[in-house]
Amino acid sequence: MPLHPASGRKRPPALRDVAELAGVSIKTVSNVVNDYPHVKDSTRETVREAILQVGYRPQAAAQQLRTGASKMITLAVPALTFSYFSDLAQQFIDEAQRRGQTVVLHSTSGGREAERTVLEGFNRVVGDGVIFNPLLIEEEVFARMEQTTQPTVFIGEHLPEKLPHGSDYVRIDNAAAAFDATTHLLESGRRRIAFLGAIATKHGLQPHSSGSLRRDGYVAALEEHGVEPDAGLVQAVDDWHRHDGFTGAQDLMARHPDLDAIVCGNDDLAIGVLAHLRRLGRRVPQDIAVIGYDDTPDAPFASPPLSTISPDKHALAATALDLLTERIQGFDGPPRIADTPYSLVIRESTDRAAGDHAPTTPSSTAPTAPTAPCLEELPR
Amino acid sequence: MPLHPASGRKRPPALRDVAELAGVSIKTVSNVVNDYPHVKDSTRETVREAILQVGYRPQAAAQQLRTGASKMITLAVPALTFSYFSDLAQQFIDEAQRRGQTVVLHSTSGGREAERTVLEGFNRVVGDGVIFNPLLIEEEVFARMEQTTQPTVFIGEHLPEKLPHGSDYVRIDNAAAAFDATTHLLESGRRRIAFLGAIATKHGLQPHSSGSLRRDGYVAALEEHGVEPDAGLVQAVDDWHRHDGFTGAQDLMARHPDLDAIVCGNDDLAIGVLAHLRRLGRRVPQDIAVIGYDDTPDAPFASPPLSTISPDKHALAATALDLLTERIQGFDGPPRIADTPYSLVIRESTDRAAGDHAPTTPSSTAPTAPTAPCLEELPR
DNA sequence: AGCCAGTTCTACAACGTTGCAATAACCTTT
DNA sequence: AAAGGTTATTGCAACGTTGTAGAACTGGCT
Predict the structure, then answer these.
(1) What is the CATH classification number for the domain harbouring A157?
(2) Is the CB atom of residue B11 positioned under 7 angstroms from any atom of strand D?
(3) Looking at the predicted structure, is the pLDDT value of residue A256 above 90?
């Protein structure tokens, strides 16, 4: 029972222990482990046995120290309690696993300090690069950064004017998506359309947050269709949880009982909105339409099933990992920006003819879910 | 621009670089970084400046190699697309962050192979210990394991007869919780109570899965109240997603239109069930009661708000980390089993008098959610 | 001056791994 | 039987860090 010199704890088996047992050099064992071709078959066999016998497994730390690469990447998102981020995290984990990488997960829990820590490279180096979805961090903090301290890919909507050197950015064109969502409502005849989701918090308004971008798309669509935007129809919320949707709808409906549609900043908000409308006795979609954003797993099971913008999370994850990998492998060009596709998913919550047809397949993103004998339409 | 000898990539600043700039020894810099007390104030200052100037950050890998500890722990769960697991993961991340630890997240995505990989210690050592929530792994695989290859804490319900040496187990008494849930229904006068959630898949039935334990509690409660359990009222499902709840309810209601309550294996299933009942025009809770398990963030926003078993996820995470930390610090006693509390949360879906009172506060688990000016009751 | 007790700083070694270069063993071919 | 080539194996050094032990100072006391 060998002890670690510094800690006094049991030391896990190392190459040395295998080598001793197999009667070969440490390097030979290393060669076997790494499938180096020039090893005699008989030796390889002996070593393999010894490995099993002592239960050897390579120490990632030593490999990283020696090779300079850890095959680990850090993913920093606000909080897994948002279904959008837990879905997204799952995509990253799967995609990384496919590439032989391991994901270290950091949650900034929406705290500005936590985000700054991420941006400044944490307090220690762990992993080869970072994928970071900021929410709150101020633009000026970005601006001050001349360059990143390790390969970094930003995701999300918090676009700074100028990315730090050494970083890339993968986004979804939020304004365009919100434009499409709003256009869909306009084309189905809605005219009094509210927007729920501008963030006005104790922290002050976020100029580049997804809320503002989506609102811009909403406004643009109205203008394009000759509908005068009304600032009173843009409802601020404290946060983007279901709960905020509920109270937001409360405010909105009290002030504007004549609304015939609400564009929501995300699905969680929309689900809260639906809950309030149900309470008011407003029928969705007959009296009022509701559309969300994110296509969370809840959306098809909301009552009624929720129309929404469905970002291609898989493409987002894959693209971000591609860019990050290039950075890790030494690419040192200027910051790149990649746009990722999205689609408009129309379900019952915006479909006036609902209940008559609409065989919508809920798009399940769960990896193990069967391909769905599925749920056609759900009554409200 | 120093290159890494083995990879040819840029080498991040190390203690050496700081030492050179500050004109002191490497060890002195190390002492400053680690707040060793016997350092002259002036020296400390010089070194601090040099650290900032070169942008030094400690390399976790080298620390781990030297000290034998990485301050990282691995969390392996089936999939973050289940709200239960994303909530739980968030709890672990927060709690670990509070203890200065970082979480490496593995997703087994329900695959048996992936789970076996976790159990066998992955292919390389990363982090100081593992928290593992198995779903599918066979009991015999556990039984064969004499001892774990690194400190391990199991969570979840898949209790093997005998834990491997070096591991602990934190669980929630599933049978008791399901017993309580069922008793609640019985006491409010329900008699034709079905159970949805036994897993019967291509993989075969899972003897120790949470589904079976919960079913056992359900059966026990019926017996205790003199209600004859009816095997026909136990409905198997392929998986535990909302979708499966929908189709499961379909089967169940077709065969037993007279049901007056359904106990669901988890909240996602229950939400699917609610969707189907709405479609059938059954009123919940007047005609039929539905109760879930997990208290996911959706539950209070379901229509109607869902009664459920609320496991104390925070206690679960904290306990698991406590036990794991003890193992990491050298505790080598026999396997321990810890039970974690749960509570029965009664919302509208099981409350016959619903709509009249019931000022239920949705228990939001989101870290940033305000303490709720809240949603009283929601109409169905 | 000489000595001790503290404080401040440093040299060394080792953690487990792998790239490099060198050696040793083995076959061919002359 | 020696030269040349290929295959198999190995020793060395270094990645960045920190525990240990000890050296070099400082100041206060006899």
Answers:
(1) 3.40.50.2300
(2) yes
(3) yes
